Amino acid sequence: MKLPIIAYGDPVLRRKAIAIEPVEYPHIKQLCEDMFETMYAARGVGLAAPQVGISMRLFVIDASVFDDDEPELKDFKKVFINAQILEESGNEWSFNEGCLSIPDIREDVSRKPNIKISYYDEDWKHHEETYSGMAARIIQHEYDHIEGKLFLDKLSPLRKRLLEKKLNDISKGIVDVEYKMKFPAVKKGR
Ligand code: NI
Q1: What's the pTM?
Q2: Is residue 190 domain-resident?
Q3: pLDDT tens string 102-120
Q4: Which residue from 32, 57, 145, 184 has the fewest beta carbons nearer than 10 Å?
Q5: Could you tell me the CATH number of the domain that includes residue 80?
Q6: Is residue 187 assigned to a domain?
Q7: Residue numbers of the domain that contains 9
Q8: Distance 149 CA to ligand 1 centre (A)
């Protein structure tokens, strides 16, 4: 089932998400399936639970579209539960990022290239792994979501000022978008 994606301006995107206990959430696999379906329909490569209105430490990633440049990403489809980035290293590199909650805005964002991360998969198996390049970048972007952060936070104050009007419009639903969204500043019942 496709879920509506929460747009910029909704407080759920700014909340630090809480860890999930297996007993509290027996239907996690169904939620992951729904999140993948939602993400593919919106042509995204990652989606975090807060973006569908659920403040939990969960995100899904499918980076296989980048396998032309990085062949090791061919089957990179993963679920990250209760992720903790343990280490980030290397010299920051810049990449033009977008976000399904902030349609129509893409900006260069600098991040470190290597990460070490601990997480559980959808079978509650624990992993501790290192990633670099595009995989690390997508994980960092999604990880920010469960920490209540957005890529906009990494832009210069000037850049942010220039985007202000556009961001306001997005929260009001004044944006062209081909997938279903929920806009925080649109009054219900009208
Ligand atoms: Ni995003």
Answers
A1: 0.95
A2: no
A3: 999 999 999 999 999 999 9
A4: 184
A5: 3.90.45.10
A6: no
A7: 5-182
A8: 9
